[in-house]
Amino acid sequence: MALLARHRTRLFAVAPPTPAFVKASRTLSSSLQQQHLRLSARAFSSAKEPPQGQHPSAKDTGSSGATSDKNSAEGGNSKDGAAKPLGKVSGIVNSILHGSGSLPKVLSQESWGVSLARGKYVHELQKHRIRPERFDDYVQLVSEAFPRMVKESNNRLRLTGSWLTEIGELDTAVHIWEFDGYLGHAQEMDRLRGDPTYQKFLKNLRPMLISRDNQICLEFAFWKSRPPVDLGGIYEMRTYLLKPGNLLEWETNWRRGLECRRQFCEPVGAWFSQLGELNYVHHMWNYPDLETRKKTREQAWKVDGWAETVYNTVRLIERMEANILLPMEFSSLK
């Protein structure tokens, strides 16, 4: 056993480094350090030099060397304490941390609303998920209440349309209301809150529903909602949840895509959400029947520009759904 242990020690023991190996390692390490220092000094020197034909102003460097030394010691801070960029060095660091030395101009949600919306009306999209056992009661209740609400508003509250889902989210009603801007919406809501008949309607409505929600939406400027008309057939409501920050690109592509589609089918309206769940876009179309819908969608692929619209917009979508709707008897759009 002792003999076996001695052989095992010899087999796995690590030999100590030779003097020549140690000397070569130190030489290589020193060389790499010197090269690193030279590169760092060169980058810092380039960062301090102004572009050709341009000289730093007294405001940036100060009127004396003492001011320059102070700014250097403080990392290039300005008088108000905000950090000043260090030229190429700062650009390199920013590129590593953020992916780019500059950021694109970002429009706010409000800016998008101004640039994309028609601006004349505000629309409220309501969804009522009905208890199946109360479905008939619901239809009777809203069929009496909604036309009365429109009449009593003196045309300040308009019903774009009311539909029931035929394919998709069943036992669901979709209502789209139109107001004269946000001010008109606020005025009508104030009036309804003080209306005993409307409050009674809400009291009777709530037990009939599983849930309800709404969104305040604006129309796309290039796609105006249709006025009241009896088109017949079926309606398709396509709802897209966009990845945040993609609404402007969506609008740009669909502005072209709509011209491809409207050659074959009737566009009803398109809205994007401003309050409630955000980043939603809703498109509504009208078809005589599902077979015609199939054929018209196939025809669109033959038009120049439609395939490009689909390619450019599908990557902007988080999820989507399509519901086939039938208009209710009192709906303005039928």
UniProtKB/TrEMBL annotation:
Q: Which InterPro entries match?
A: Dimeric_a/b-barrel, NIPSNAP, NipSnap_domain
Question: According to the UniProt record, where is the region Disordered?
Answer: 42-85
Q: Which GO terms describe its cellular component?
A: mitochondrion
Q: Name one Pfam family in it.
A: NIPSNAP
NIPSNAP domain location: 124-220, 235-331
SUPFAM superfamilies of this UniProt entry?
Dimeric alpha+beta barrel
Output the GO biological process annotations, alphabetical, semicolon-separated: mitophagy
- Composition-biased stretches, type Polar residues, lie in 60-70
The Swiss-Prot or TrEMBL record describes its family as follows: Belongs to the NipSnap family.
Q: What name is this protein filed under? A: NIPSNAP domain-containing protein
List the source organism: Mortierella alpina (Oleaginous fungus)
Print the organism lineage.
Eukaryota, Fungi, Fungi incertae sedis, Mucoromycota, Mortierellomycotina
